[in-house]
Amino acid sequence: MNTAVTSKEDILKSCRKLVSEHGLSAVNMRSVAKACGVALGSLYYYFPSKNDLLIATIESVWEDIFKLKNTDMGKTSFLKYIELCFKHIQSGVGKYPNFFTIHSVSLSSGNQAKARNSMNRYLARIRKRMLEALEADGSIKKDAFTSEFTKEEFVEFVLSNVVNLLMQKKDDCKILLEIINRTVY
Description:
- By secondary structure, this protein is mostly helical.
- Helix content is 68%, strand content 0%.
- It folds into 2 domains: 8-57, Homeodomain-like (Arc Repressor Mutant, subunit A, Orthogonal Bundle); 61-184, no CATH class.
- It is built from 9 helices and no strands.
């Protein structure tokens, strides 16, 4: 077996490939060491336990799913941004079948919280970008938002529905786009 040192990112790349091809349950110390062509001890250098490896893998998959290309907010309407966001995340989710629904069962309860925190960090990034897109859209009705109906709450509603549609494996987000259109345009 190759005992050459590999990078943590190379290990996580192999983990993402395992998750993509065989699901999260295929990720364990031996399968990852074999996929990377490294000795088991080399893997323990980067990840002291299976749970550490699983959490890092989950974070890496979330990062891959949720990374969004930089879109010029000044040239893209909020509606178009939401559609692009949905399609991009949908594509990411498609690379990792059932990842949304099964990753929590692979971890102990304490580590489930870490994985959930990781997901929430990525969702916060998307929430921030959605808010930026909303604020950059000059077509939004000037009186669309009030102290009882804030931009932040609206973005939270939109993001929750994007995630919900993805978990339901919907092909598109047309109904959400129509709700947005009727509400703020």
